[in-house]
Design goal:
Thioredoxin domain-containing protein; Thioredoxin-like_sf; Glutaredoxin; 334 residues; alpha/beta; 7-stranded mixed sheet; Thioredoxin_domain; 14 helices
Length: 334
């Protein structure tokens, strides 16, 4: 985000407060390369002019929503000198996406619908825009990564008449994955085997106010690193000890040849820390595609009613969320 928009966002908020992981399908970059005939050089002025916000709009949500709805008013996607220019489009899309955290979900959805409708004037430009949205909102190491912000773009590209069925296959796959176990919804129930060989379900698993659901593979190096990182954290261990946190670690390796009682037992050298609940996924977890597991480990933070708080989170994100909650809701002194 450039300095001009940073200052504008700050003024927007100050004025308001004072006034009141993929399928084997063609990537978007490949589709764009096949569709585009030429790309203009990056020689344009980098920023679209920001629309003036009516003085009657006072709250941060109102002002951000208006700015989102009118951000692209001065842009014609038929002007391929700009609409096919990667540098120009990337800079302005980043500015545009920087407004998303300040606007409600309905306003974001409406704004993306308007934007993608306008972009249908030129297919290479449309594909460039979709590719950039995926880069910033879907890529795990992007500071703007947000599945909730990405969903409106996927909804548009999955149904646009501009693309054929093959071109829509990837956004449809990503959309289906994004709509599973969204934050705020109840996590999908599934069956797992306990170390004793019994069957248990996620929803019937006794839980503290917070439940960390971890899908892992005992042979996975990243899994062992994540387990070590979580186990070494002081607050994490204290919450586990105090009964404020439950950890349910589900081994996704399922041996169809071995008896149920043995397949759920931790393997030698891969034991979980004390206090963690171990389980082995039943085949239905993967067969029914209840969860998308883009990498190992995959972490979900749930509340006591099994509502999703964090989806496919990094260990650092889980720890940061627990720190934030502990700061906002400190334990009463004994």
């Amino acid at each position: 985000m450039n300095d001009r928009l940073s200052i504008f966002l700050l003024c927007l908020l100050l004025a308001a407060t004072s006034g009141i992981r993929s399928a084997q399908q063609p990537s978007l970059s490949q589709l764009r390369a096949a569709s585009a005939t030429s790309i203009a050089p990056d020689t344009l002025s980098p920023d679209l002019p920001l629309p003036a916000i009516p003085a009657t709009l006072r709250t941060p949500h109102e002002r951000a929503s208006y700015l989102l709805a009118h951000f692209w008013d001065s842009m014609s996607f038929a002007d391929t000198l700009r609409s096919r220019n990667p540098g120009f489009m990337e800079q302005n899309l980043v500015n545009y996406l920087s407004l998303f955290p300040h606007a409600p979900a309905e306003a974001r959805t409406r704004a993306v619908h308007l934007l993608m409708q306008r972009a249908e004037a030129d297919k290479p430009a449309y594909l460039l825009l979709a590719e950039l949205a995926e880069k910033y909102l879907y890529t795990i190491d992007s500071p703007m990564q947000s599945e909730e912000h990405f969903i409106p773009f996927l909804e548009e590209t999955a149904r646009t008449p501009l693309l054929d069925e093959t071109e829509k296959s990837r956004p449809r796959f990503l959309l289906a994955a994004a709509l599973k176990n969204r934050p705020g919804t109840t996590a999908a129930d599934f069956t797992y085997h306990t170390p004793e060989g019994n069957l248990q379900t996620l929803h019937a698993t006794p839980s503290a106010p917070r439940l960390l659901l971890m899908f892992y593979n005992p042979d996975c190096t990243h899994c062992r690193q994540a387990i070590a990182l979580l186990h070494a954290d002081g607050l994490f261990k204290q919450m586990l000890h105090d009964g404020r946190l439950t950890v349910l670690a589900i081994n996704t390796e399922y041996d169809h040849e071995s008896p149920t009682r043995h397949e759920a037992r931790p393997r030698s050298g891969n034991e979980l820390p004390d206090g963690w609940t171990a389980g082995t996924a039943a085949p239905t977890l993967m067969d029914n595609e209840l969860y998308v597991l883009p990498s190992m480990p995959t972490l979900y933070l749930l509340d006591q009613e099994k509502h999703v708080l964090l989806k496919e989170a990094l260990p650092e994100q889980v720890l940061a969320r627990l720190v934030e909650e502990s700061r906002n809701h400190p334990r009463p002194k004994e």
